[in-house]
Description:
This protein has about 625 residues and is α+β, with helices and mostly antiparallel strands. The protein has 24 helices and 20 strands. The two termini are about 40 Å apart. The structure holds 2'-deoxycytidine-5'-triphosphate (DCP). 2'-deoxycytidine-5'-triphosphate binds next to strand 1, helix 1 and strand 3.
Amino acid sequence: xxxxxxxxxxxxxxxHVDMDCFYVQVxxxxxxxxxxxxxxxxxxxxxxxxxxxxxxxxARKDGVKRSMRGDEAKKVCPQIHLxxxxxxxxxxxxxxxxxxxxxxxxxxxxKGRCERASIDEVYLDLTDAAEKLLKETPPESLESIHEEVxxxxxxxxxxxxxxxxxxxxxxxxQNKNGDPRDKLLACGALIxxxxxxxxxxxxQFTCSAGIAHNKMLxxxxxxxxxxxxxTVVPFSSVKELLELLPIKKMKQLGGKLGSSLQxxxxxxxxxDLLKYSEEKLQDLYGVNTGTWLWNTARGMNGEExxxxxxxxxxxxxxxxxxxxxxxxxxxxxxxxxELCEELSERLQTDLETNKRIAHTLTLHADAxxxxxxxxxxxxxxxxxxxxxxxxxxxxxxxxxxxxGLREYMNPMGNQSCGWKITNxxxxxSKIIAIPSGTSSITKxxxxxxxxxxxxxxxxxxxxxxxxLKMEFGGEQGTITHDESETSFDRIDLxxxxxxxxxxxxxxxxxxxxxxxxxxxxxxxxRSNSHKRKPTKEKxxxxxxxxxxxxxxxxxxxxxxxxxxxxxxxSQNRQTTNTWDYNLDEIDQSVVEELPREIRExxxxxxxxxxxxxxxxxxxxxxxxxxx
Length: 627
Ligand code: DCP
């Protein structure tokens, strides 16, 4: 459901930049002889020439559409070049497109806050840059203005197709007496045109853009004039724009909410919503959505451009249409292996290149039952804390799948009917940067909740269930820790993913219940620590936990002891640091489960001991789990 955010200011300058027929452009750069030729990119599939996923503008002129299969496109446009998406591990390999998207982002982020919204689109907050330009070199002071700016479409100017289009736009850009907000948008248009030219020069890609006072309007505008053009939405043109905009075209209104507005209220355009008071909309759709609708009808949207140059999540998925649908657990496992290997590679690259770590693994599937009475039932998405390494990802993904399957097949009911999987994906989300620097070990294990240290050492354990709030890059999730033999922590994510809940555990196979507790995830470490008896357990687990809870100043004390060759030290409880664990005994494989940066730091602390590590357990969880 949409969330209403107050409009922070109506004089922000926000741009939405969207690449034109992106995959086609990437392929055309690779094979320049395809430039100017009708071209489309198909996802390989032997059925009717594969599905088109990107269509170049030359082919669009001939009537080729994304909804077509390759064979159909050839009929409509016999000279079309169909390029197949690269394949790796039996599925589409999108790395070439992702990397091309990153090239563009690095250019677009030069002028202001930049949010990578998808593989080929970004939002920019250019308010500061526009204000600076307006102050230092306002458009009216410019003797000449670049063609690319003059080609802009300014909504409300009614100059499209006019021979004097550029003259009219120039006048608008240089209007000394114009609305101050328009002057800022004019500066935004100059900046965006310059950025688009830089993208073209440096990557050979064209893009289109919308420039407005908020994200919603900028996004609407970027698609209005494609390819290689930009559209400006002055404040005064918003009402007219929304009056005629079909309700389903508005972001977040393409689905059920938009249908309800059409069917239940007879609302056909966004402007039609103006008839309803905020109270009425709140009555009908709840306070948040009601306010959001009321704002949307007026073109108001307070959503901020988030600083994010890297993707918010990594997903690896595959569709299995028709006879290729998966029917057995072993075929699902085989595919999950491929998907997890790909995901693991991407996570590793992200970790090494960007020092980011993902926290949540989610499994999504589409399924249907072979003899079905409730075919509408969706396969539930399941999540758990994410463990690094392809093998562990696979283990957890398989467990999540089994957990989802049990629920999907209705554990209370008839198990005899079969199932088929038509889509399978694994997603790594809640990605946050690992703090760097000498205290990174401590920060790594504490990054979610700086105020938690004292809790960990206090007898919180009395509580059988504790709820901890975590913040990940602005999003919130709640983890419920249960004292029972829990296999999965239940995570209620704002993304709406369902997750494996502890209540399912009795239904799960024993395999599941042992595996998922062994998760080397900070949250699990924390969760486990809650279950410790505070005074009696003096084993390895408690002390390594304390090591990881030690803050940087306290680490200063411990390191002197480490330099002396022994890592055994006791301190009184008031200082919350106790070194009663001999790191010599850490199993090498345990250390290897840590992210590389943390691992290297540990090695640096123990240069002479590394070779002597004694095998004690199979998993880092051995040290971090309560028993
Ligand atoms: N894409 C895909 N599957 C889809 C839709 C899109 O794989 N069902 C890929 C191919 C596109 C890229 O994502 O090139 C970006 O999608 P867009 O919707 O932005 O479309 P294009 O960039 O291809 O064209 P346009 O110029 O209309 O934005």
